[in-house]
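Researcher: Going back to the complex we discussed earlier. I've cleaned up the inputs and rechecked each line, so this should be the final set. Can you rerun the prediction on the complete assembly and write out the structure?
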Amino acid sequence: MSTTSSTADLGAFVGAAQPAPQRYERAAVAPAAVVAPTPTAFLPAAPPPRTRHSAWAHRAIQRARSAPLSLWLAWGVIALVALWAVVPGVFTSYSATAGVAGQQLQAPSAAHWLGTDALGRDGYARLVFGAVHSLSGAFLAVAVGLVLGTLLGVLAGSIGGWVEDVIMRTVDVLLSVPPLLLSLSIIIILGFGTLNAAVAVGVASVASFARLTRSEVVRVRRSEYVEAAFGSGGRFGAVLWRHVLPNSLTSVIAMAALQFGSAILSISTLGFLGYGAPPPTPEWGLLIAEGRNYIATAWWLTTVPGLVVVAVVLSANRISAALTQGRA
Amino acid sequence: MTATLVSAPTPLLEVENLAIAYRDKDHEQRVVHGVSFSIAPGEVVALVGESGSGKTTTAQSIIGLLADNGRVQQGAIRLNGTDIAGWSADRFDTVRGRVVSLIPQDPTSSLNPVRTVGEQVGEILQIHRYGDRRAIAQRVVELLAKVGLSQPELRARQYPHELSGGMKQRVLIAIAIALQPALIIADEPTSALDVTVQRRILDLIDELRREFGTAVLLVTHDLGVAADRAHRLVVLQGGRIQEQGETASVLRNPQSAYTRKLLADASSLASAAFRAPRALAANDAPERPEDFAIVVEGLVHDFPVAGRKEPFRAVDGVSFRVRRGTTHAIVGESGSGKTTTIRDVVGFRQPTAGRIVIEGTDLTTLRGEALRQFRRTVQLVYQNPFSSLDPRQTIFQIIEEPLLNFDPLPAAERARRVQDILARVGLPAAVLERRPLALSGGQRQRVAIARALILQPRVLVLDEAVSALDVTVQAQILALLDTLQRDLGLTYLFISHDLAVVRQIADTVSVLQGGRQVDAGRVEDVFLRPGSEYTRELIAAIPGKKNPHHDPLTDLSHQTPRVLQQAA
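Model: Rerun complete. Updated structure for the full complex:
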């Protein structure tokens, strides 16, 4: 069952490889679509959205077919973990937080696939229920980094002058601080918790997003089609929105996928250190931290969540590599 | 008997029934179909054809440099009688450089930027064990002197970015001749260079060929260059040979329809007709200031130079006037200031001094919103249609976009205008849904012209608008521009380094050199009675002088005016 759903997911995700133009097309076509419903308006040139969509879906399917096995695996892992986060109840009948007395520290068995922890809670259930915390945290972190970083990068790259200098030198300072240290400092200001940990990880990645976005914007701004757009009377904002942003975002999106992997890692690190979600939340970093006390007698408690984190991070990196390749 | 020996020497290279395919995912696409030709020692054979005709693929297979997904499917490539078609890369190393060498197309990207010129020339000598370090260093200097570089000792220590494009091409030629190979493959050796530099480089290849008896396979899209330099022509289209034979006889009496078309389209080989004067341009009409669509007076443009007090003057006192409905050409080599001039004319930059009046508006006084509104009047078409169209937009969005920048129009009206303009530039409605990547170079340039015309401008500035295109496509675009000018009464400012094209389409011309205008006036006047040495040199550098329509025996310097006089 999980295989079929992951296939469906794959199509959607592979399509997401080009989110920028898609968004842009809709924006540009919107005025035409307003007129389209009136039956008298004959619009051979205004493309009916459905054709466009099916052509797009067709391309997505074609790309999915030609994708290498490792990419399929990567999407499979991400899809499975995403399903864990959305419908954890389907995957396990145990509770992630309620322990059963007398069943502490059991070895993996048919009843408890990954054994039980020191409080008698099912390891597999904790892993499944933990996905939502780790994934949503990572999403939030990437969103914070992506939005703030892209904004700063676009401002710096398109305005130039002293604005660019101020923004980019600040970014240089931020980049010179180790990201974990930066996250820890932010957490100490904001306080502990899943949400704050995610924000802290996100803010720590703003600088690298800003730097990448700026370099892309500067590249696109120098291109002839941007000059041509100004030459045909385009206003600054319109040209930015129509040409600069869509053409700069591809590698930024690829970096977001990469960042997703490292955000999971960073949030797990913060959880491990005790700065993230408080117990008994089944957050992955916390699972690893709690399990390490029993590593000699119950190694699976800490190893399996660790391997899951590794698998997710590797998958995110693989997908990011595919996105970068698709650009070239 | 001697005659037969001369006319049929043992071929150095024999290509027989060659078929090459590229693998694309699952299936193989054949791009070269049964090509056969041969080259005798000391002979120059030109492979001529438009892009996609398989000429570069054929040349690459001879030196074993096909792309990874390319494969010789059948046929033989015999070099001195040995079939090298199926050779591995290792085996090719033994002949590359020593027997066959290559002059690559783009001199700017063919040299390693982090190594000195001397090291790069020496590398080939090292690989083929020419001798010890000192012998190689000495030979490098000899070679650099041989290809006509001044101060060869200094050049050997310089890095590629310190040399001009022509000098870099000379370095590449030095590498190619280092081991005195029997065959040099020159893949569009001058396409990236200015006309005068192009002529000097081709002369150099010719001289070296005569000195060493090297055979040359000249790959080119420029029939003019091929006609001037090659003994025999091989005309390729779609991977098939359309025609081959002695240059003179092919040009005089082309057998295939395709060769005839190529000949007709090659502006440098066309019978050098000047353009019939436009009614409005009739030069005896009295001059009234309102007749002129573009008036440029004393244009000066300075660029600040980092670390220097006085700025660099890119344009120095250029003045010209263009009558409404006529075409004015600006001619000059790279660095002559022509691009700076037109960027001022379309209002992308403010000139340092001077006046630019377009359709009665002084451009140099406009700022901000007024300048933006003014852009409806002047539109620019770029040289390279591959970079001037946003790859993420559909053709419809590209052409429609200028309309969105001004008074809001209903979507139906915009769609109608896009359709109209698309029909005008001769594109089918089916392309509207596609993206630029799915279009050919010529189609893209038509899209760029449509985008420029949709605002109904009065003046169209064309920046080398046809020089990135194949001759046939070039001829089509020039014809289109001519029709549009007649129908819409447009005024063109046409930038070009190609005097043959200028002769064909312009009414008046300015010749720029180093930012100064060295010659100006009606095209006939400038071409027949050049006012400066530089203009004379430019005119002499137009390839295609060996066209049998002209007298090939006449001395070049005398020939030019006469040829043009005949034509006029």
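Model: Worth noting: The CA atoms of residues 530 and 536 of chain B lie 6 Å apart.
Researcher: Good, that matches what I expected from the previous run.
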